[in-house]
């Protein structure tokens, strides 16, 4: 989702731009609630993310000893980095207020819920992650959602055809 400025330069890695999104999460899970958290990153990780490189494919969050950790997030090594480059798949600490973390602990412990990152984006020069409290879907739920989306798409198409005066 790179936006173009006046000079035609890409604003990837600027405020409001999404660096990575986990599209598969909305298919695999039912989203119960979302939270925004900061991430403790190293300098080369930020530079790599400003180049638009990050992947949330296998990422998940855990709560260990009252701290929130993001695991499985892949940020490739910075292309102009040297021996000080970061490890691409290291665990990264998420930054939230204590009462928010305690609320998450209660929600995850109560039911069959998990913490799934939905997207990474910049806000005021800082990287934020949209974190969802989610419950895994059964196979029949996924099929039901897919059928519902297909039916809605067909209804919109048919309505468009009728407006244009076409008969299919």
TrEMBL record:
Mitochondrion: present as a keyword of the record? Answer: no
The molecular function terms of the Gene Ontology recorded here are: RNA binding
One of the GO BP terms on file: trans-translation-dependent protein tagging
Where does the record place it?
A: Cytoplasm
> A single GO CC term, please?
cytosol
CDD domains for the chain: SmpB
InterPro entries in UniProt: SmpB, SsrA-bd_prot, SsrA-bd_prot_CS
Query: Which UniProt key words apply to this protein?
Result: Cytoplasm, RNA-binding
PROSITE patterns in UniProt:
SSRP
Q: Name one Pfam family in it.
A: SmpB
Q: Which family does it belong to?
A: Belongs to the SmpB family.
According to its UniProt entry, what is the function of this protein? Answer: Required for rescue of stalled ribosomes mediated by trans-translation. Binds to transfer-messenger RNA (tmRNA), required for stable association of tmRNA with ribosomes. tmRNA and SmpB together mimic tRNA shape, replacing the anticodon stem-loop with SmpB. tmRNA is encoded by the ssrA gene; the 2 termini fold to resemble tRNA(Ala) and it encodes a 'tag peptide', a short internal open reading frame. During trans-translation Ala-aminoacylated tmRNA acts like a tRNA, entering the A-site of stalled ribosomes, displacing the stalled mRNA.
Q: What is this protein called?
A: SsrA-binding protein
What organism is the protein native to?
Dietzia psychralcaliphila
């Amino acid at each position: 989702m790179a936006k173009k400025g006046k000079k035609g330069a890409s604003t990837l890695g600027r405020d409001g731009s999404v660096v990575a999104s986990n599209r598969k999460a909305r298919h695999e899970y039912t989203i119960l609630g979302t939270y925004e958290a900061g991430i403790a990153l190293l300098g080369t990780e930020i530079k790599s993310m400003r180049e638009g490189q990050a992947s949330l494919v296998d990422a998940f969050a855990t709560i260990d000893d009252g701290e929130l950790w993001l695991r499985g997030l892949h940020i490739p090594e910075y292309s102009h980095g040297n021996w000080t480059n970061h490890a691409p798949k290291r665990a990264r600490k998420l930054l939230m207020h204590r009462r928010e973390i305690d609320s998450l602990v209660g929600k995850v412990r109560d039911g069959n819920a998990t913490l799934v990152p939905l997207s990474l984006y910049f806000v005021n020069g800082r990287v934020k992650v949209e974190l969802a409290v989610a419950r895994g879907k059964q196979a029949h739920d996924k099929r039901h959602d897919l059928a519902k989306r297909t039916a809605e798409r067909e209804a919109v198409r048919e309505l468009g055809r009728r407006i244009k005066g076409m008969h299919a």
